[in-house]
Amino acid sequence: MSRTPKLDPWGTPPWKINFTPSRRKLPACVDFAIIGGGFTGLAAAAWLRLLDPDKSVAVFEAARIGAGASGRTGGMVLAETAAGNQPGLGDVLAGFESILGKLKVRCDLKLNGAWEIARKPSSGKAKLQQSPIAWNDSGTLRVVNEVPGGTLDPGKLVSGLARAAQRQGAHIYETHRVQHIHWSATPDLHITTTRGAAQKITAAKILFATNALSLPDAGLTGMHPRLTLAVLTRPVSEKVLFAIGLAERQPFYTVDFPYLWGRVRPDHSIVWGAGLVQSPDADDLEKVDISAEESSGAFDRLEDRIRHLHPTLENIKFSCRWGGPILFRDSWKPVFDWHPQSIACATSKGAASNNSDAPRNGIVLGAYAGHGVALSSYLGTWAAEVLLDRRDLPKWSALKP
Ligand SMILES: Cc1cc2nc3c(=O)[nH]c(=O)nc-3n(C[C@H](O)[C@H](O)[C@H](O)COP(=O)(O)OP(=O)(O)OC[C@H]3O[C@@H](n4cnc5c(N)ncnc54)[C@H](O)[C@@H]3O)c2cc1C
After folding, report:
1. Which residue's CA lies nearest to atom 2 of ligand 1?
2. How far is the CA of 227 from the centre of ligand 1 (A)?
3. Cα 332 to averaged position of ligand 1 atoms, centre (Å)
4. What is the pTM of this model?
5. How many helices (H) and strands (E) does the chain have?
6. What is the pLDDT of residue 6?
7. Average pLDDT in the chain
8. Separation CA 148–CA 55 (nearest Å)
């Protein structure tokens, strides 16, 4: 696995993560090791301890909690998966709300719906007769559908989940990068800290929640890791929001191309996003610097596009540029499966088996594309239940479909 991601090369998003995990000595072994301190890993850690306070749980985060997509996300809360609903998925938004309630996480969640916008009318049932917006963007962008969804503050969600995990008794180790796993019945994790110290820890079970980074070690091949870009305007007046059709505060995203998404923040600033930057070197996103030519040109083009959406936006000022990693595969379905190198293990339901569906000691969960704010916590807690041998993996999320 490569070097620790730094916040600066990907820019700094506008919200704050105001929680720092307590520093602790590494134990020699744990029941559950979680790799990655984003929404997925933190929700899984908190849930594991909530359901089974007797089990030890450690989260290893290469940089700081939220350093990946979770601290940099757009903050639109969306239902289902990027590939739509899946058999047995359940109600993601209701589940997410319930998880936040049980973990006592406050993150300004507002589920007031989301707008699908497009240049052409939708064939969807919920087609809106009158669009509040009419933006000039390779045609006229209009609202074509209203779907369940909403917004939240990503900094508060990262902090809240981390605080909940620690309050429940999970230990979070920042700047601890898992370099390698030696898979066996009791796998060893080889970890380095940013100071260069190398340590080894044994875990009974492992959850890989590293999203678009550390792909080979997570067993994720044939995926598409990209850096996606976002910008923030300075706060605008209520009059401007009304003129551009965002007075109702619905977040929005295109269902055709070119892609555009965004939302109004409580201080009247507007987050906008679009554009993907590919890593120049074998999908190693950590090498992308957003101030370099390709990304900087993409930001200029995005800001220019926004200024031309509506006459009121012509002189809009921007205060922030940042990027973050997303991972998707051709089917757009998340991956939620046994790690390919994990070992079948004995469970409370029976002895170890060679059956490929039999419980094993490692799970990989991620690849939500731009659809992971609610889904990551929702599936993170599901993963905790699978690790505790209380639930099965879904049928639609196999690594090799
Ligand atoms: C700019 C942007 C906007 C987005 N907007 C939206 C949106 O509006 N709505 C929506 O639903 N989704 C959105 N998404 C997607 C959503 O944010 C992600 O799907 C979600 O945050 C993924 O969470 P995660 O915990 O799985 O991954 P991450 O948050 O990426 O966490 C993975 C963590 O693993 C750590 N890590 C990696 N390798 C190692 C290792 N070897 N050892 C230890 N730690 C390691 C990383 O440092 C990182 O902190 C957006 C994503 C981006 C980037």
Report:
1. 73
2. 11
3. 16
4. 0.95
5. 6, 18
6. 47
7. 92
8. 36
Predicted confidence (pLDDT) per residue in 4-50, tens digit: 444 468 999 999 999 999 999 999 999 999 999 999 999 999 999 99
Residue 51's contacts (CB-CB under 8 Å, 6 or more residues apart) are 384, 385, 388, 390
Return all residues near 351 (Cβ < 8 A) that are at least 6 apart: none
Angle between helices 39-51 and 92-103 (to 10 degrees): 60
Pocket of ligand 1, beta carbon within 6 A: 1, 5, 35-41, 60-63, 67-70, 72-76, 78, 177-178, 209-211, 213-214, 228, 230, 273, 324-326, 366, 368, 370-373, 376
Token couple for 46: 């908190």
Q: First and final CA of the chain: distance in angstroms?
A: 26
For 283-309, b/e burial (b = at least 16 CB within 10 A) is bebbebbbeeeebeebbeebbebbbeb
Q: Which of ligand 1's atoms lies nearest the C-alpha of 76? A: 8
Using DSSP's 3-state secondary structure scheme, residue 42 falls into: helix
- CA 353, CA 350: separation in Å to the nearest integer? 8
Atom of ligand 1 nearest to the CA of 39: 25
Span 177-223, pLDDT tens digits: 999 999 999 999 999 998 889 999 999 999 999 999 999 999 998 89
Token pair, residue 120, equals 């052409």
Q: Residue 255 has what DSSP assignment?
A: S
